[in-house]
Each structure stands twice: as structure tokens, then as C-alpha cells.
Specification:
This protein has 217 residues and is an alpha/beta fold. The chain is built from 11 helices and 5 strands. Helix 6 packs across helix 10. The longest helix is centred in the last third of the chain and has 26 residues. InterPro entries: P-loop_NTPase (IPR027417).
Length: 217
């Protein structure tokens, strides 16, 4: 008999890398995908480019303007705590869109899904084992290193009336979102890998592969 396509099969075999920004998640996922011949799903890329229609439709459904908020309203008119809470709440909505993306993929091998929006509390119900997920977060020193050496980490992406305060707010927000991810991972029994810059990307990929174990081979 021909094999029956299982729309949930991809999700059951997915290996998840969540955590904080600037911890090297995308780099590690690319290394592992190349090393083991796997498909990598990059949440940030798909969320920014493939979900815009849904984002606009949702705003309209809630009576909100379809266009993005102004940079000043995003980065200057809220506290970092409020920003972090809004970010985490938004992840829950956008996670369903990411799952639709993943259901549409087919591979006889596991998929590696990475991104800061792949939150432990959202992914945990899908896991057959906590070993299918790892949460990567940078130490504070490594976060500052990334911000000072990676142009894309330091770039705001949009001009504001107070760039210095906007950047400080963004960094503080990211720190709070990372701390929340660590707490949520602990609650779900998911491993947290702290990245301090003492090991290169290949060595971090080795550690992540060891965590995934036989699931990645």
C-alpha cells in the first residue's frame, strides 16, 4: 500500500533550538543541517517574510491599523518590561503560523527548527522527549560581544528620535525575554545551554548534537 502522508509527522520528528537572540542558534542549526543532511527551518526569516499577510489580517480583525507601529511607539513609548511581555504574548500567536510552515514540510529525516519565538512552553506539548529541544542563551558578556561585533545585532532596523535609548530598551527587552525562556525551560525539564564565547560554533554544534542524540542521525 502507498504510504499515507501524516501532516503531524514532521512535528513529531522536529528537533527544536529555542532561546535568546545572539546565542548562535541559526549558526548551529546551519552547521547541523549541513553536517547531517537535514532541513533547517529558521523562524525569524519565515516570521518576518512569510507571515506578513496573516499579521495584517489579524490586526484588521482586532480593529487595529494594518501598517506596522512607528519605531518610536515600539522602542520609546513602552518600558522594556512591557516590551518583553508583549513579545512573549505575540510568540504564542505566531507559533501557530510556524507550525503551519512545519506541517507543510516533508522529510524522511528530522527537521531542525530554530528561533527565539520557538518558546519552551509552546514546544513542550509537542515533544515526545525533552531531548528533542534545547534552549540556547548568551551570557551577558557574550551578548555584549555580539552587539559590538555583529552589525546585524547592533542595527535597530528603523530610525527613532532617540537611537541610544531605543537600543538600550531593546537590549533590556531581549535580556528579559531570555530570562523568561530559561525559567520556562526549567519548568518543562528542557535543557538550557549557556553560550559564553569560550567555544566556537562547531564545538557548540557538537554539544547540541550530543544532546539530540540518536534523533539527529
Amino acid at each position: 500500500m502507498p504510504e499515507v502522508w501524516d501532516p503531524l509527522g514532521t512535528l513529531r520528528r522536529t528537533l527544536w533550538i529555542g532561546g535568546a537572540q545572539w546565542a548562535g542558534k541559526s549558526t548551529v542549526a546551519r552547521i547541523l543541517a549541513h553536517r547531517y543532511g537535514l532541513t533547517a527551518y529558521h523562524y525569524d526569516y519565515h516570521d518576518a517574510r512569510g507571515h506578513q499577510d496573516r499579521r495584517i489580517a489579524r490586526r484588521l480583525a482586532f480593529g487595529e491599523p494594518p501598517q506596522n507601529p512607528t519605531p518610536d511607539s515600539v522602542w520609546l513609548d513602552s518600558t522594556p518590561q512591557d516590551m518583553a511581555e508583549q513579545t512573549v504574548a505575540g510568540f504564542a500567536v505566531r507559533f501557530e503560523w510556524a507550525l503551519d510552515d512545519l506541517r507543510g514540510l516533508y522529510s524522511e529525516r528530522p527537521i531542525i527548527a530554530e528561533g527565539w519565538g520557538l518558546r519552551p512552553e509552546l514546544v513542550a506539548p509537542l515533544l515526545e522527549s525533552p531531548q528533542q529541544m534545547i534552549v540556547m542563551v548568551p551570557t551577558e558578556d557574550f551578548r555584549q560581544h555580539q552587539l559590538s561585533t555583529l552589525p546585524r545585532a547592533a542595527a535597530m532596523g528603523a530610525s527613532t528620535s532617540d537611537p541610544e535609548r531605543a537600543q538600550a530598551n531593546r537590549i533590556a527587552r531581549d535580556r528579559l525575554v531570555a530570562e523568561d525562556a530559561v525559567r520556562r525551560a526549567a519548568q518543562s525539564g528542557i535543557r538550557v545551554l549557556e553560550v559564553d564565547g569560550s567555544r566556537d560554533a562547531e564545538a557548540i554544534a557538537d554539544a547540541v548534537a550530543d544532546h539530540f542524540g540518536e534523533s539527529i542521525t
